[in-house]
Amino acid sequence: MSGQNPLKKMMNNIPVPQQKLKEVLRVEGLTKVFDKSSQPIQALRQVDLTLYEGEMVAIMGTSGSGKSTLLHMLSAIDAPTSGKMFVFGEQRDVHLEPQATIFRRNHIGFVFQSFELLEDLNVMDNIAMPLILKGLTNKEIEILVKEALDQVGMKKWRTHLPTELSGGQQQRVAIARALIAKPSILLADEPTGALDFNTTNDILHLLVQLNKELQQTMVIVTHDAYVATFADRVLFFHDGQIVDVYTNKKDESDLEEILEKFKYIARGEQ
Amino acid sequence: MQRVKQAQQGDEAAFLSLLNKEQDKLYRMIFAYVQNESDAIEVYQQVIIVAFEKIVQLKEPLYFSTWLMRIAINQSITYVKKRDRERAVSPESLHLIEADYRPIEEQLDLWQALQFLPNHYKTALLLRFYHDYTVPQIAEVIELPIGTVKTHIRRGLKMLRQHLKGVYNDEWAKSAEKDDE
Ligand SMILES: Nc1ncnc2c1ncn2[C@@H]1O[C@H](COP(=O)(O)OP(=O)(O)OP(=O)(O)O)[C@@H](O)[C@H]1O
Ligand SMILES: [Mg+2]
């Protein structure tokens, strides 16, 4: 039988309940004002956002629209002026020390555009750093680092120094370091911003693969619409607010549509 | 099929990604037996747990889909039997039988007719006409000889037609019966 016989048609009409998504991080009314200078800057204006387990979210938007500021608030690198934050559904004050450090250690992995590896340490030691800070035993660290090296394909380079590596390789190491402590969420601020097209592609595929295999929740800030096509959800920022959300259809990324939206946001229209 | 091997070594993520492709069809198959959403979700979850526990026993990775389907069918039928038994001993719960699903009008007759069939006919028809399995594949899922599968399909269609008498879907059942001869 080809096509849709009545039995098949009937069966396909049975609604499949959507799996309830589990929220990892949620912010409500997140606001950030930088008021050190004479002219205060509203970097975030009442941002509401929920990040769900296993999803890959891309954030796009014009320069100065507040993308990095948002990541800094989400990771408790910096404190918001006002707003609430919920961790696995529970409201938490994570922006004051010592909670901030504990929160970052337990929940956050961060990847920077400029890699930010420690120059004097070799690849293995860089990756091990979060575990050392957590106080794991050498044996435990060894096992986990080995696994992480495999995951990012850097086993061969484990005793090299960062200066002996290409940009893409350094970013692989940085990703391994960000993921080694199994964070609830990985935040990446323009992780491919310093890389050429082919290397960007490699890093992206690595991130997508880790997102799928580890069900790793990720937020990636990017200027590159191509990067955004890999995300489940794309948020568009403008002037400290989310002005548009685009949800990727399953299995088909629509570059055209994202590019279109990005152009329209870049022009500052709403 | 690498994924099956990984899942057999206890890799949960690999197992989940295997399931990903199958989940809607699997859920609807279960639903065809249990006929309401909350039971279907419960059975679906059981199926996943059982499958993950037993995947080490799967010898041929290529048979993952049919193997999973067999678990789903068996779990569904067992569940319905148990549910019906429980209802039989506590008649006060009879009125609680949830009928939270009602197919659209033109499919209602077929849905009801399907529910009248004994489970082995229902299974054969669903595998053949919903999942597009071949007769040998069905034989594999239900672990019966090919000849028996053919009989189940033929008798199932015939019974379906009897229930559909005079309704438009009858046309399809009649032609399907011819196709399968
Ligand atoms: N530490 C700071 N002190 C004062 N102003 C700041 C500070 N950090 C950010 N800002 C201001 O806040 C606004 C948002 O900056 P942010 O870095 O979040 O933008 P962005 O979207 O990441 O931009 P880009 O795409 O250029 O990285 C900008 O106007 C910026 O000048
Ligand atoms: Mg920035």
Automatic annotation (TrEMBL), chain A:
Keywords: ATP-binding, Nucleotide-binding, Transport
Xref: InterPro entries: AAA+_ATPase, ABC_transporter-like_ATP-bd, ABC_transporter-like_CS, MacB-like_ATP-bd, P-loop_NTPase
Keyword Nucleotide-binding carried by entry: yes
PROSITE patterns for this protein: ABC_TRANSPORTER_1, ABC_TRANSPORTER_2
Cell division keyword on record: no
Domain of life: Bacteria
A GO molecular-function annotation: ATP binding
Ranges where the ABC transporter domain occurs: 25-264
Stated family: Belongs to the ABC transporter superfamily.
Protein name: ABC transporter ATP-binding protein
Species name: Oceanobacillus neutriphilus
From TrEMBL, chain B:
Entry keywords, A to Z: DNA-directed RNA polymerase, Sigma factor, Transcription, Transcription regulation
Record-linked Pfam families: Sigma70_r2, Sigma70_r4_2
Annotated ranges, domain RNA polymerase sigma-70 region: 20-85
SUPFAM superfamilies recorded: Sigma2 domain of RNA polymerase sigma factors (SSF88946), Sigma3 and sigma4 domains of RNA polymerase sigma factors (SSF88659)
Keyword Cytoplasm: no
Domain of life: Bacteria
PANTHER family: RNA POLYMERASE ECF-TYPE SIGMA FACTO, RNA POLYMERASE SIGMA FACTOR
Family: Belongs to the sigma-70 factor family. ECF subfamily.
Protein name listed in UniProt: DNA-directed RNA polymerase sigma-70 factor
Biological classification of the source: Bacteria, Bacillati, Bacillota, Bacilli, Bacillales
